[in-house]
Give the backbone structure.
Amino acid sequence: MVITVDMIKELRAATGAGVLDCRKALQEANGDFEKAVDFLREKGMATAAKRADREASNGIVELYSHGGGRVGVMVEVNCETDFVARSEQFRTMAHEIALQIAASAPKYIKAEQIPASELEHEAGIARARAKEEGKPDAIAEKIVEGRLEKFKDEVALLRQPYIRDESITVEKLLLQTIAATGENLIIRRFQRWELGESLNRE
């Protein structure tokens, strides 16, 4: 199929990718616009993964208050340069992360940060429930594994479904922004407060 200049322009306008990348994507997709967009996205994700070891010490501390001050969130998101830190795309993503934290109340950024004791506690609950339901041991262990994965999806921010588009996770949203900005981005830390929470809570 012949790839026209107009096709390249349209794809470039939609994705922000370079002319040569757009041409290659359209060639790979045999002129199919949607497939070409997917090709560029996947390429961007691969590039984003390669950037993960680059230093990110600029950024923003985003503050968000929800429900007339009933929930407050503070999140630090880092990038490599001051230029990206000031960009609308980066700031929008930081705000979206704060909204996500307010709405979904994660406890950790990554699943790897969940203490083993907490995972064991959840596994114990799932095991007891499976036993109560009379499930055979082999099936019970699969139920426990499934419950632990679901628990990680609930408490780890990067594994949560993104509140505006549940077909992607917060991690994918982050990777898309890394691909778009060309810089390594890191959600460094966050804190979420809810009015009336016990002050003695661990």
Notes: The CA atoms of residues 158 and 171 lie 5 Å apart.
